[in-house]
Amino acid sequence: MTPFCKINTKRFNPKTQRTQGESSHFLGILTVESFLFLLSICHTPHGIRSSKLTLFHDGRMKSERFNTTVQNSKDRSERHLVPMMVILALFILAACNVVSQSEPTTSTPQPTFDPTLDALGLPTPVARTLIDEADAEHILMRNIFERVSPAVVGIVAVSSPNGVRTEMRGSGFVYDNDGRIITSASLVNAADDIFVIFNDGDWKVALPVGVDIFSDLAVLQVSGGTADIIVPPIGDSDAIQVGDRALMLGNPFGLGSTMAVGIIGGIGGQLPSAQLIDSNIGGGFQNPSIIQISGDINPGQNGGPLLNSQGEVTGMVLSIQTPDDRLSGFGFAVPATTIERVVPELIDNGEMQYAWLGVTTLPAENGFGVPALAEQLNLSVTEGVLINAVIPLSPAANAGLQGGDTITMIRDREVCTGGDIIVAVDDFFVRGIDELLNYLNLNTKPGDTVNMLIVRGEDTLEIPVTLTARPARGVAPPPPCGESG
Fold it and tell me: The pTM is what?
C-alpha cells in the first residue's frame, strides 16, 4: 500500500525547541485508500452496516463493521456531517503537503537559545538542581547554628573607672561541661563584675580563672556547671585556607545567638594584642598566626567562636577597637592552635608563661622580610628571619646571636642589615617571623633549650639557645645598629 504522505513522527522533547518539519503529535500514515474510505462512510445508507475507523499510534488502521439503526430524526444531522468530514479530509491533506514540503532533506543544526529566557524573552525558573544546591548551603548553616548556638553565650563586663559604671558587651562559648567559658581578654581584663547570659536567657555570675592579654584569651567560671550543654569540638586551624567559609556566632545582647557569615581573608598575621589591651605594656610582643576574616563583624561578636563547615571551633573572633580606628572594619580570630596551648595553662596555673628569645626584626608585611630583601642584599637564602637587633641580656644575646651592623637605604628607609638569619628551630624550618613566634609559643616554655640553625654571611651555624620567661611589662628598646646586645 503506497503512502499518500508521511507525517514526521519524531518524539517531542519538551526540553528542546521543535525543529523544522517536527510535530508534537503522532498522526500516523494516511493512504489514498484510507482517504477514500473516510469519504465513503459519510454516505452510508440508513439502516445498513456501517464502519468504525481506528487509527493506532504505530501507524496501523483497523476498520470494524457494525450494525446501526438510523432514526429519521438524524437525517438533518447527517446532512451536516458530510460537508464537515470533507472539510476535515481536505485539511489533513493540506497538512500532509505542508509537512512533506517543509521536511529538510539534510540535517539542520539546532538553533541556539538563551537557556535563561523563554520564547517571549522572559526569565525562566531557576533549574531545580541549582535551587537544591543553594538550599543545601542554607541547610548546612542552619544545622551548624542549631547545634552550636546553645554553647554560645553573651558576656557583660561591668567596670567603674573613676566611679562611673561602664558596661562592655561581647560573646563567649562553653569550653567544657565544668562551667568554663572562653572569651576575649580585652572584654574582661579590667572588669569588676562579669555576667554570662546563656542562650536560654539565664544569667549567671562569672569569675575569671585566667586572663592572658598576649593571646587575648580569657577563661571564666560559672557556678552550677554546664553539663546540659553540648560542647563544640575544637578543630584544626592549621587546615584553614584563604577562601574557606567563616561562620561566626555571637550573643552580644543577651537576646539569643546570632550568626555572621564571611570568608577567610588571610592567615599568618600578627597583632600587638597586649599593647591593644594595656597601653602600659611595652612593645616587642606579637600575637602570631592571626586569622583575618572578610565579613561583617560587630563589637558584640568579640570573644565568640569562629566555626568551619563541620561546626568545629577553629578560632575565637576578635573585634578590635582602637582610638585611631586603624583596625576598624577588619575581623580577626585567634587560631584554635593558640586556644589549645593557652587555655589549659590558664585553667591549671591562672596565667600563661611564654618563652622569650629576645630579638627584633623588620615587618615582613611591609616588604622587609627575607624573601623581599634576598636579591637586593645578596642573601644566600630566600627564607628565614633576618635579625635586626638583639636585646641586651636576652637569651639571644647570651647565646651569641648577632644583629645588624650596617645601615642600608631600602625604599627610602634606613634598614639595619648584616645580622644573622634564623632558618630553623629544632629542625623546624621557618619562612618568616610569624612561623618562628608560633613555633616558640606552641612548643616551648621558659627554661627550654632550642637549637637555632642560622646563616651568618657565608657560614651556616647551629647555636643552642636557652629560653627564659617573657618579661611581664615589656623589654628595653633594642640597641642602635652595629652595637652588640
Answer: 0.70
